[in-house]
Design brief:
The chain has ten helices and four strands; from the N terminus they run H-H-H-E-H-E-H-H-E-H-E-H-H-H. The protein has helices at about 5-10, 25-45, 45-80, 95-105, 120-130, 135-140, 160-175, 185-225, 230-235, 240-275; strands at about 85-90, 110-120, 150-155, 180-185. The chain has a four-stranded antiparallel beta sheet. The longest helix is centred in the C-terminal third of the chain and has 43 residues, at about 185-225. The chain is elongated, with a radius of gyration of 36 Å. The protein starts with 6 loop residues before the first helix and ends with a helix.
Length: about 280
């Protein structure tokens, strides 16, 4: 029996060179053969394979769409958050030096984008441009001194947190030259809470659907094992080890996952084109 097996087959030597083949070359050759044969495993059941690929594509496209929605929601929240600001009303006895000091203090705070100074004269002009205030402005013009205070408006950055906005308020609230401080902390807090909720929903849904994808591929491989039970038994009888039997099935699962990802990308592109097109 042993005499019928060529010597180069038993030792791994090449027929012409007489040199042993590298183990890496043999390893790559075996995996390449298993990769190609796994396509044959899938081709034997085309309908079931196509259904599995479409199911994986639909499952993967949902977290992708949710991710796109989350990115748009965060961008929209950032635009809305442009209105987040800290308004500081300075006492009338504050001089130009004190106002410059408060302005510099506000600009040094983290989360502050810009600081604008509205003088009493500029505030009076804004009142004059407002509708329905002519009677009030007539009385203001008759006064010898403009009663409007200096106002400093610190506009928050688009990604400023409620804690940062509150810290900006606290940095100037105790100053003796500050009459009053108004903030939009509640509005900013609601924006951040909504953004964090959307992000958490995205990760929960993505995790659940990721588990669903893994279970779908595992179940498909299990069905392949059941369908090839007789073939596997024959392979074991002729001396095939577990790695030889397992390799085509693992690569079949890899092909299913890759094809499902491609299907998800195609479905995502089609969905985005449909949503962006005018009705």
């Amino acid at each position: 029996m042993d005499a019928t097996i060529p010597n180069n087959a038993r030792t791994g030597r090449g027929a012409d060179s007489g040199q042993p083949r590298p183990r890496l070359s043999i390893y790559i050759e075996r995996h390449a053969a298993a990769l190609i044969s796994s396509l044959g495993v899938l081709w034997r059941t085309p309908i079931a394979t196509l259904a599995t690929i479409l199911a994986l594509g639909v499952t993967l496209v949902f977290p992708s769409l949710l991710g796109v929605a989350m990115i748009n929601a965060v961008s929209l929240a950032a635009l809305w958050n442009e209105g987040g600001q800290v308004t500081v009303y300075v006492r009338t006895e504050a001089g130009p030096g004190e106002i410059d000091r408060l302005t510099a203090l506000l600009r040094q705070q983290p989360g502050v984008r810009t600081v604008s100074h509205i003088t009493p004269e500029a505030g009076l002009v804004e009142f004059r441009e407002a509708a329905g205030l002519e009677t009030m402005l007539t009385g203001l013009n008759e006064l010898e001194q403009n009663p409007l205070p200096h106002v400093l408006i610190a506009a928050a950055e688009s990604r400023a947190t409620p804690e940062q906005v509150a810290a900006v308020r606290e940095s100037v609230a105790s100053d003796p030259l500050v009459e009053q401080v108004q903030t939009d902390v509640e509005w900013v807090a609601k924006l951040h809470a909504a953004a964090q909720f959307v992000e958490r929903v995205f990760w929960v849904v993505a995790t659940l659907l990721g588990v669903a994808v893994v279970l779908t591929v595992a179940n498909s491989v299990r069905v392949m094992v059941v369908g090839r039970q007789d073939e596997i038994e024959v392979q074991k009888l002729v001396g095939a080890n577990n790695a030889f039997v397992r390799r085509p099935l693992l690569y079949a699962g890899l092909w299913l996952g890759f094809s499902g990802g491609v299907a998800a990308v195609v479905l995502l592109i089609i969905t985005l084109v449909v949503l962006e097109s005018p009705f």
